[in-house]
TrEMBL record:
This is DNA repair protein RadA. GO terms for biological process: recombinational repair. Gene3D superfamilies: 3.30.230.10, P-loop containing nucleotide triphosphate hydrolases. The gene is radA. The middle region has homology to RecA with ATPase motifs including the RadA KNRFG motif, while the C-terminus is homologous to Lon protease. GO terms for cellular component: cytosol. Residues 67-216 form the RecA family profile domain. The keyword DNA repair applies. DNA-dependent ATPase involved in processing of recombination intermediates, plays a role in repairing DNA breaks. Stimulates the branch migration of RecA-mediated strand transfer reactions, allowing the 3' invading strand to extend heteroduplex DNA faster. Binds ssDNA in the presence of ADP but not other nucleotides, has ATPase activity that is stimulated by ssDNA and various branched DNA structures, but inhibited by SSB. Does not have RecA's homology-searching function. Plays a role in repairing double-strand DNA breaks, probably involving stabilizing or processing branched DNA or blocked replication forks. GO terms for molecular function: ATP binding; ATP-dependent DNA damage sensor activity; damaged DNA binding; hydrolase activity; zinc ion binding. Residues 44-72 are annotated as: Disordered.
């Protein structure tokens, strides 16, 4: 017969290359390309039933599609990220670094859904059932009606699921699954894709919700969760910083709810605890107002979250000053520095700049621009902002301040947490704010002039 053609597949993004190379053009990862045999095509399946795939007139489709029924886990932080609970037959990917707490979270979720009446199966490919049971006991979930299986053979797992017909199946992790009809090693892109494909197909066919756990990998020998993102309905990432106790579950894709929603947890000795008031948590270590420290009134998903930006500006001993940022985009920092110089006449040449979001939170909203600029200025001028004030607003390249979405929610949260003033763009819809002194500015230069007398 014909010699099998080999593919070179990036284990990070799944891009297929005609030959090996050290760096993937698709995603830029190094040493991520691995030789894999392609999926054997096999005989085409006969499709029966003329109705399947027949088109339906657009006008015949009901416009009032009922919202999907959902089961809540009563772990509010999880239910919110799922879009209001678990949808039957949905496929969910939960990605995250090894050791971040994925197994802990999903064991707790399995127990909660089981207590809410769902028939739940937890399949571990990484630990023996006895180990999982010990962890459950440690989490105080020893009596939860969750069934455990320690298995990596995909065919055996699918047979078991087909017999059990659970409402929820958790597969921990998809990288340990092994399909015996795929000719490459467990953890490779072909294997991970085959497992994800079979399991998501099972989910649709049988109405079982399937949660796939995927480890984020730095090196390319094991496929990362990104290669299955497009196969599932919902993609959640579990994030956290080393040395910080809290964890953020973030929806980056959700067919059944808003993306960008977050759930906040704290890793404790007894597993993950919900953090119902993230603002209080992220501001909890705040000392007395210090130069360089600014509270940003942000929105994460559907929820206002206050957090602290911290900047440090100091003369550089190097020929090339450092620009270092944690929790905020480095390109956006460069843009704000350029606007400060070009529009406000405040240069940062010869100065190292460090910017950090306290507590390890990651902020992606342009609405934080003004908070970043204020933190940089406050650090540079060694002048603290008025105490008990929050800041938000987007900065354009011209130096103008743009109003941002959900202004009222931001202000309401600030007021709730005891702040007394806010610095915001002109023309913001501030609503009725008797208790909050909202100062509005048209451009960055006006903020600089009033707060720092520059
Ligand atoms: P784990 O859920 O095994 O991570 P993952 O599945 O993402 O690899 O969690 C690993 C870490 O969590 C481990 O370092 C121990 C810690 N941990 C706690 O702090 N408290 C707990 O109750 C549990 C179960 C784990
Ligand atoms: Mg694990």
């Amino acid at each position: 017969g014909m010699a099998k053609k080999l593919n070179f597949i990036c284990q990070s993004c799944g891009a297929v290359h005609p030959r090996w190379s050290g760096r993937c053009d698709g995603c830029g990862a190094w040493n991520s390309i691995v030789e894999e045999a392609p999926l054997s095509a096999g005989p085409a399946k006969k499709t029966l039933g003329a109705q399947r795939g027949s088109p339906v007139a657009l006008t015949d489709l009901s416009t009032e599609e009922a919202p999907p029924p959902r089961t809540t886990s009563r772990i509010d932080e999880l239910d919110r990220v799922l879009g209001g609970g678990l949808v039957p037959g949905s496929a969910i990917l939960v990605g995250g670094d090894p050791g971040i707490g994925k197994s802990t979270l999903l064991l707790q979720a399995a127990a909660s859904f089981a207590k809410a009446g769902l028939n739940s199966v937890y399949v571990s490919g990484e630990e023996a059932s006895a180990q999982v049971r010990m962890r459950a006991q440690r989490l105080g979930l020893g009596d939860a009606p969750v069934r455990l299986a320690a298995e990596t053979n995909l065919r055996d797992i699918l047979t078991m699921l087909d017999t059990e017909r659970p409402d929820l199946a958790i597969i921990d992790s998809v990288q340990t699954m092994w399909a015996d009809n795929v000719d490459s090693s467990p953890g490779s892109v072909s294997q991970v894709r085959a497992a994800a494909h079979e399991l998501t197909t099972f989910a649709k066919k049988r109405g079982t919700s399937v949660i796939l756990v995927g480890h984020v990998t730095k090196e390319g020998q094991i496929a990362g969760p990104r290669v299955v993102e497009h196969m599932v309905d919902t993609v959640l990432y579990f994030e956290g910083e080393r040395g910080h106790q809290f964890r953020i579950l973030r929806a980056v894709k959700n067919r059944f709810g808003p993306a960008d929603e977050i759930g906040v947890f704290e890793m404790t000795g007894g597993g993950l605890a919900e953090v119902g008031n993230p603002s209080a948590l992220f501001l909890s270590d705040r000392e007395t107002p210090a130069p360089g420290s600014v509270v940003f009134a942000g929105i994460e998903g559907t929820r206002p979250v206050l957090c602290e930006f911290q900047a440090l500006v100091s003369p550089t001993p190097h020929s090339q000053p450092r620009r270092s940022t944690v929790g905020w985009d480095g390109g956006r920092l460069a843009m704000i520095l350029a606007v400060l110089e070009a529009r406000c006449g405040i240069p940062f040449t010869g100065l190292d700049v460090y910017l950090n979001v306290a507590g390890g939170l990651r902020i992606g909203e342009p609405a934080a621009d003004l908070a970043v600029a204020a933190a940089l200025l406050s650090a540079r001028e060694d002048t603290a902002l008025p105490p008990q004030s929050v800041v938000f607003g987007e900065i354009s390249l011209s130096g103008a301040l743009r109003p941002v979405g959900q202004t009222e929610n931001r202000l309401k949260e600030a007021q709730k947490l005891g702040f007394s003033s806010a610095i915001a763009p002109a023309r913001s819809k501030i609503g009725d704010r008797a208790e909050l002194d909202v100062r509005q500015y048209a451009d960055l230069a006006a903020v600089v002039g009033e707060l720092f007398g520059a």
